[in-house]
Amino acid sequence: MKAIRNMISSQETLLASILVGSTSSDDVRNVTLLYHSSQMDSTKIEIIEAAVRELGTNPRANMSEIARAAGVQRVTVHRYFGSREALIRSIAEWALSQVDEAVRAVAERAASPIERLTDVIKRLVPVADRVRFLYTNPEMWREPELRSRLEVIEKQLRSWVDEAKKLGEISSEFPSAWVVAAIDGLLYAALEANRAGDIATNDMANLVVATLLRGVADSTRGSR
Predict the structure, then answer these.
(1) Which of 130, 129, 109 is nearest to 120 (CA)?
(2) Which of 44, 59, 94, 221 has the fewest CB atoms within 10 Å, counting from its CB?
(3) The whole model's pTM is what?
């Protein structure tokens, strides 16, 4: 963090020098390059996010269709990614990093297995479209490295399910792999229901957790 603050401080000082005319042309070029680099990063993320949305509804979308969804020219998409295959890999790496970050954040805190599962679901709901991409895109499964990273994430989720089953918090009749698959399915269901306007964004996480842990049976029925 200190290094980041120092970098920001030096950039602010450099910009201030430019504004008062007390810096060299090399420094001006450095700031210009820094500005354009940040702009390019922003554009790249916008293309990736648009591609996730487009491929979610049209898995065979080509570069032109993805460019149109991102609001940029086709040549821009090619400049950043070169090919559709490279774009798909970039999306997968980006999605995996976000899912991995959510799982790691939960793993680092002291909590019961069911609390961890609840927490990780809440963290995954905002990136549900990326989770879905990882499980439904065939190109993803042709890359051993990417597949291996996803398997590590699944292994962590299954371990929490296993622990919850030992504590009686999840029924032992359900295979752990099935429970993890159910989480993926419920995330997708929440995503689609939200897109259709059937559920509010703020309700997505609670609905996924409640459906996973309690099912949809009427819990008051047995007491009548």
Answers:
(1) 109
(2) 221
(3) 0.73
